[in-house]
Amino acid sequence: MLSSNIKFDINIYDKVPSDVSYYEQIILRSAIRSSSPLTDHSTISLQHHLDSNYNIYPGDDVTYTWLNLLKNTYYQWFVEMTYGTTTINSDVWGFLTQNFDGACFYDSDCGRNQWLNTTYCLAGDIWQDYRDYTCLDSGTVNASCDYTDSPQKKQTCEDGCTNGTCNPIECYSNSECGTNKWIGSKFCNTDDIFQTYRTYECHNKGTAASYCDYVEEDKLRKECDYGCQDGVCLSPNITCSINSDCGTDGLVGSKYCLAGDSYRNYRTWTCNNPGTPTAYCSYSDASQLIDSCAGDCVNGNCVVNACNLNSDCGTDQWLEMPYCIGDNVYQLYRTWICEIPGTDSCNYTDTDELKELCNYTCLNGVCVDQEEQSTFDADIGVRYFLVQTPNPTAGNFTVLAFNMQNNGNISVNDIEWQLSSGEGTIINGVVSELKVGQGQIVMRKVTYSAPGTYNAEIIIDPNNNIDEFDESNNQEVVSVNVE
User: Fold this and answer.
1) Domain 376-482, CATH 2.60.40.10 — does that match?
2) 210 within 8 A of 174, measured Cβ to Cβ
3) Per CATH, domain 8-96 is 1.10.20
4) Could you tell me what percent of the chain has a pLDDT over 90?
5) Rounded distance, CA 254 to CA 252, Å?
6) Domain boundaries, the chain
7) Same fold for the domain at 8-96 and the one at 376-482?
8) pLDDT digits (tens, 9 = 90+) for 292-321
9) pTM of the predicted model, to two decimals?
């Protein structure tokens, strides 16, 4: 029970100073005083009417922080104390907030701390200037803003810094630059199969000076026992293994007229006995339609022009090769006729015309006498001689190919031939047998030491060991352009 002779006072102090212009918060303080000591453990309940504090002893200070005050606003407050059944209220106090003319209250009022300008290099690392704002004498009329600019490290560089950026490291190992590999197609070199191999390399590994590079080197892929051609090992003493070894199928020769339309011969190559020592090449030619002529065909071309003279239609001429009819030499002869002058009426006739009267008889389109017939039944000729390798280059081998054929009426054995590169290389060989009408394709490799144009030559029966009724077809020359 509270004694009746005890007097309590509520002391209010630290009121709002008169020179305060504006506060967002204010701290209020109050204290309790009694005229005589209280019993032990006696407590007082104190209430600001803004907040409550309990178990307050006489002589204690009580504080309260009033937040979010507005400018130019009048605020009032008082304290209520309860002790047992006794309640005492303080006077009502008030204060007026005024307009605040100071520069700042918080540091953030001065500005936003920030990075300045661009990054730069310092001691091998990335640095940048940083601005930090400060409010001096905050909350007073003397408040002012200030800032400090200071360099700060933004990033540590492993290998130095250039123009505000860490130096890049392109590679640490060879594998980061690429995967070593074969590139391009296989090719022949020194009669073996080679291919280009690319090797990647990282130079100055793990440094800013690192960079990737590669080297390419021609390396051996396979050794060939019998030479190499077009990136493939050749088989021993085998002329051909597949049809394409003999030649490329396609149109040959010039256009010609057949049944009033334009045609060309289509040549198909065949490898006989492929992949064996007796393999040989042959071909067959078949007429292939090039153009169906609405009018007529002249010298292999369709024509629609009107004619007035026979010569307007075409030139009379011998066709194909001579042949034998009876004992004499004949050949097909074409005669052009303008049937109705002034119109598109060209026509022609092909007739067997006597080309030569023979004293004795005719053999394979050639006149022979009795002695020649009994003595010269053989004839081996060169059908063609060509450069098999496209775009020959110096230092690399070039394939020369020729075809010899038995044009006679008897089989011929042990046929010698001699191939000259035109640069001094001589190659000799023998074909064991050619039956009547049979041909044999032979391919050989030669290497030219320098660019230029060379006249390669093939001669069949160079020592004249075979008696032939036509010696003029035993030799051919081909021009080889070496880059």
Assistant:
1) yes
2) no
3) no
4) 17
5) 7
6) 8-96, 107-166, 174-233, 243-366, 376-482
7) yes
8) 776 678 788 877 667 888 887 778 888 878
9) 0.29
